[in-house]
Amino acid sequence: MSNAAAVLTRLRSASSLAVVCHDDPDPDSLASAIALESLARTCGVETVDILYGGSIVHQQNRAFVDLFDVTPRRYSDARLEANELVAFVDHSVPGEHNQVPRGTPIDIVIDHHPSERTVPSDVIDVRESYGATATILAEYFLESELELTPRIASALLFGLHRERLDFYRQPTDREYAAAAALHERTDPERLRELYGVSFLPGSVDAFGDVIHNRIRQGSCLVSCIGRLENRVALAQGADFLLNIDGVDTVLVGGVIRDEVHLSGRTTRPDLDLGESFGRLFGDRGSVGGHDDMAGGQLPLEDVAGTTDAEDVLVERLRDRVGRRFLDAVAGDAAEPDA
């Protein structure tokens, strides 16, 4: 039995399903969630709850929810337990990047990220060789010949584009094949509107600080900023800085409330960024990721003490996080990037 057939068979056994996205869900996670919801309803599942922890603050993620009529609900144990089946999309282990208690049994897991922990699920479709979970869901539709509506095709195409193709983050042949198959089924107007959404004002300010505060060591670049409203600008800044000529690895850090948030990117084939984050910062907070993207949160007091002075805060982050990262993954002396 194929993975798609196993998932469909499991869906046909229940009348309700909770689809759990990871915390702060991105387009890959959201697209995969509504694609699985569509499959579930085709299989006769009457009730589908899409659940998430964290927040949806990135301007394109918020626009995605609006334009694709997604109705995600804040995670709670009660909402999870109210459904017969539980599915994870774009993550795999309870308690890692989600609010689900560790050890909770899961019925279906669909993901492309590697995990060092055992995945506690009846039906497991984890394809580490794939670049996006949306690609896996697209193949479910294409292999089963189930109806692929313009809404779902557009969502999946946007999800795999944002995960891999837009920034050329090690896409596989499967991403290109899925994109080609989805393209003719999409709603072009909806996609154009989604790509044209604007930045939040606070993100623009923080984004400017990310650019201004950058320092470079060889092909590695770091930027540490002070306090910001949400971590959207950190990921956006990391994506942007990776486009600088000669730069192949980026770390951006900033402070949200009582935590230091980190966002990293690399195109180096010899560097596993998730492993590097774990080795450098795993003993100080919650970090993780995979070979080309990583992120995490560190307790602010552990990293920078209790200072309220913004310039002191930035300098401590640069010394205790940024330079530690540069020394570990780069070679030459760090200097401001002109």
UniProtKB/TrEMBL annotation:
Recorded coiled-coil stretches: none
Transmembrane segments: none
Entry-linked InterPro entries: DDH_dom (IPR001667), DHH_sf (IPR038763), DHHA1_dom (IPR003156), Oligoribo/pAp-PDE_c-di-AMP_PDE (IPR051319)
Any one Gene Ontology molecular-function term assigned to this protein's record: nucleic acid binding
Domain of life of the organism encoding this protein: Archaea
All residue ranges annotated as the DHHA1 domain in the record: 219-303
Residue stretches making up the DDH domain: 18-159
Record-linked Pfam families: DHH, DHHA1
Protein name: Exopolyphosphatase-like enzyme
